[in-house]
Amino acid sequence: MFASLVLLWVFIWIAILHFKSRRPKNFPPGPLNVPLLGSIFHLSLENPLKDFEKLRKSYGDVYSIFLGREPAVVINGVKAMKEAMVTKAADFAGRPQGLFVNELVDGKGVIMADYGSKWREQRRFGLTTLRNFGLGKNSMEERIHDEIKHIISTLEKNIGKTMSPRVMFHNAASNIICQVLFARRYTYDDELIKLFVGIFNEVSKIINGPWATLYDSFPIIRNLPLPFQKAFKKMENLSRRMVSEHRETRVPGEPRDFLDCYLDELEKVIYSVSCYTKSSFSEEELIIYLLNLHFAGTDTTSNTLLTGFLYLMNYPHIQGNTTPPCLVYVIFVMQAVIHEVQRMTNIVPLSIFHRTTKDTELMAYSIGTIVIPNLSSVLFEEGHGEFVRPGAFIKLPFICGQEDGVLRLAVWVGSCIHKLYVCNPHTHNNF
Ligand code: HEM
Signal sequence: where (predicted)? Predict the structure, then answer.
């Protein structure tokens, strides 16, 4: 009797789960959803990008998967992406909550904040402050030019030797952001910058690795003492340290950097807030905001630069052969190079997940859920203008018939840095 009751209970439970995990009416199609486990068997834990492409072939540009019990819609291709992110931008402007990345930042900062008054307030402050630091004497351009001098000097010290540019570019990108955030530049052998860059690399691997997929798919593991928590605490402590150092040395009303501006704003809020208004500014928000900007600015920029460098290294024969005809030409070409390198680098292939802010429609499907913008599918889609037609870029007329045009353009990026010759020691005979 008892065994029958247990069996009946299990049967009812499975039936409920099965019913709950069915796709709602007019929801985008997708692979089989296993109750509790979702679409985990269709996605590789290490690198799900190829699986996303396979699913696109089976189900079309807009399809759905399940992250555990949570449905998510994957958007592919220029047409669907434009409808969601441009035409219906406000409907798709939210951020999902309760995922791995939210856990890391505890809902604070700007990148993972949901669409709403807090996000708007923090984002407005960030944009105004960063714009102010991009003008006048302390301009961003000036900082970048200064940093390039240090890159050149590092390269010069290594003439005739082999070196890995990875750490150098991470240090350089991090340093430019450090100057905006903390009004500080660090030498490349400084322990603090090494610590920042090392932890960013570690956290980046964790975010893009199997832990994130497991965490999102199996809520049951969330309360365990998981290894990633230690890495993130280390990163948070570094940010906390910068805030307390600034508190000790700042002069109120005379901000040196982003951090000082935020502390000034925080003070204004403390003195002016009435019991009826609730401000979103707080020291805890600041700590995560600093990490958001530092992290977002370091990994993205340095990996893009690394890809540009890879072009130079793999095609050394075209280095130093170019004589640009005029400045306008150089600017035009430079912009084209940056776009092409960014396209090929594909830094954030699945962007940062979005969420619909209300029930809406996309390509005639009804959607009200997590949204995964598959940026890779857009960057490599054929037939939507010259820059997203693979191979088209190298045939542009200003290349003068050179088939390795994109590389030649990349060389100009290189030659703007310096008249240095970079090559891959494994493939270069004369090295
Ligand atoms: C090659 C360089 C970069 C690439 C490829 C890149 C890419 C992206 C992408 C794909 C997003 C998601 C947009 C969306 O939600 O639809 C994003 C958001 C963001 N990025 Fe970047 N990024 C780069 C550089 C930077 C830098 C230098 C900073 C700051 C110093 C930065 C700060 C941010 C912030 C704060 C957001 C969140 C915006 C919001 O939710 O309101 N990024 N980035």
Answer: 1-22
Name all residues whose Cβ lies below 6 A of ligand 1: 110-111, 123, 177, 292-293, 296-297, 300-301, 304, 347-348, 351-352
Distance from C-alpha of 361 to C-alpha of 408, rounded to nearest angstrom: 44
Longest Cα pair distance anywhere in the chain, in angstroms? 91
Model confidence pLDDT, tens digit, residues 345-396: 899 999 999 999 999 999 999 999 999 999 999 988 876 654 445 554 444 4
Return d(Cα 345, Cα 340) in angstroms, integer: 8
The amino acid at 417: I
CA distance 397 to 393: 9
Quick one: what percent of the chain has pLDDT higher than 70?
Answer: 75
Protein residue whose Cα sits closest to atom 21 of ligand 1: 296
73 contacts 24 by C-beta, under 8 angstroms:
no
Sheet of 62-67, strands arranged across: 62-67, 70-75, 370-373, 354-355
φ, ψ dihedrals at 62, nearest 5°: -125, 110
Best probe residue, ligand 1, of 196, 337, 348 (max atoms within 8 Å of C-beta): 348
In angstroms, rounded to a whole number, what is the distance separating the alpha carbons of residues 66 and 23? 10
Answer yes or no: are the C-beta atoms of 349 and 375 closer than 8 Å: yes
CA angle 411, 412, 416 (to 5 degrees): 120
DSSP letter for 318, please. Answer: G
Phi, psi of 150 (to 5 degrees): -70, -35
- With beta carbons less than 8 A apart as the criterion, state whether 263 and 236 touch: no
Alpha carbon separation from 137 to 143, 178, 264, 324 (Å, rounded): 10, 17, 21, 30
93-111 confidence digits (pLDDT tens): 999 988 888 877 888 899 9
**How far apart, in whole angstroms, are the C-alpha atoms of residue 378 and residue 119?**
27
Q: Whose CA is nearest to atom 28 of ligand 1?
A: 297
Start-to-end CA distance of the chain, whole Å, equals 82
Q: Residue holding tokens 């776009």?
A: 339
pLDDT for position 403? 38
Higher pLDDT among residues 211 and 11, named by residue: 211
Domains and CATH numbers, the chain: 96-304 (1.10.630.10)
Greater pLDDT, 416 or 46: 46
Q: pTM of this prediction?
A: 0.83
State CA 239 to chain mean position distance: 19
